[in-house]
Amino acid sequence: MSIGRRFYRTATGFELIEHARNRLAIVMVAVFIPVWITLIRFMMPENPLPFRYRGTGEQLHVNGQHLTFVSGGLNAATLIVGFLMFSVTHRSGPFDRRLVAAGYPRPHLLAAKVTALFASSVVVGAYATAMVYVYWQPEQLWLFGLGMFTSALTYGGIGIVLGTLLHGELEGMFAIIMISLIDVGLESPVVNAGSDNDLVQFLPMYGSMQAGVGAGFTHTVPWTQMAALPVWWAVCSIVGLIAFHVRTRVYTRSGRPVTAAMVANAPIPRPAPGEAVHVTVRVCGPSCVATDHMPMYQGLAVLAALSAEQAADRADQNVYPLSIKRG
Which of these, 258, 320, 254, 262, lies nearest to 288 by C-alpha position? Predict the structure, then answer.
């Protein structure tokens, strides 16, 4: 197995483990979705509601309870996956920064996050589809499940972006909840009588909502409307990539990024009393350990640059920053 695959497999494994350890998200999937769908079944009226289905351009008059199954399932999937991806991304920020400083390639970390996002979206989308199917059988079950999956994937990407941009968990969770509620509220005629406004085409859930309605009440597939979904995925990918790159950069005290050349050419000043640190780095194995004393900022720079340089030069060599402490 190549070193690139080992990097990807290791990062993906840790991402999936981190997802599995998020007990709140697991409880929300196991309890919130069936409770929410059951409440819709017994509390929402079946009065017909108008819905502008842009897949065919016609005005449908659909069962209000069944339409709420669509919007409610989408809302549940987006909230859970968005919260899950935000939480994992936010908590793993310092660890990702340390990995990148030690030479771990960014593309493999990002690929692992995308893999975990796809896996979470598949699980949550399939579960939400199954819960809806208990009470209502859409005309096209596969398209209904695809709508659930795409909505979860879109908001999972939004969760990753918010996880890299926001500093606190509370504001991130609040942002995801409000974005999802506003999105589904504006697109559902149950809440908004003006849901046929053309501006809803710019909302993140637009393509998924059209797919859900098409699956539930017609035999057509709104491919044109669903084409807006990759645009949201591309935007989230670009913003998330830039934010992740900036967030994981390692800086010196002067604010410049650390490179191996900077450390190799930089003079090592005599450490002042109380400022020295003890740096331990393993560069080849248990029998090869180097130690030195230097200022705190330079010790951090040496750890980052040495690890990155050794990992790039020799793929079969293990580089582990073991410790850094005050002398």
Answer: 320
Has residue 147 got a pLDDT over 70?
Answer: yes
Going by the DSSP 8-state scheme, the letter that residue 257 receives in this structure is B
Is the pLDDT confidence value at 314 over 60? Answer: no
Taking residue 239's Cβ as centre, other Cβ atoms within 10 Å add up to 17
pLDDT of residue 144: 95
DSSP state of 29: I
Task: Look at residue 53 and give its three-state secondary structure.
Answer: strand
Beta sheet of 288-295, edge-to-edge order: 288-295, 276-285, 320-326
Q: Can you tell me which residue has the tokens 């390692």?
A: 250
The helix, strand and coil proportions of the chain, stated in percent and rounded to the nearest 5, come to: 65, 10, 20
Q: 227 is written with which tokens?
A: 């084409």
CB atoms near residue 324 (< 10 Å): 15
Do residues 8 and 112 lie in contact, with contact meaning Cβ atoms separated by under 8 Å? yes
For the full predicted model, state whether its pTM sits above 0.85: no
2 pLDDT more than 60 = yes
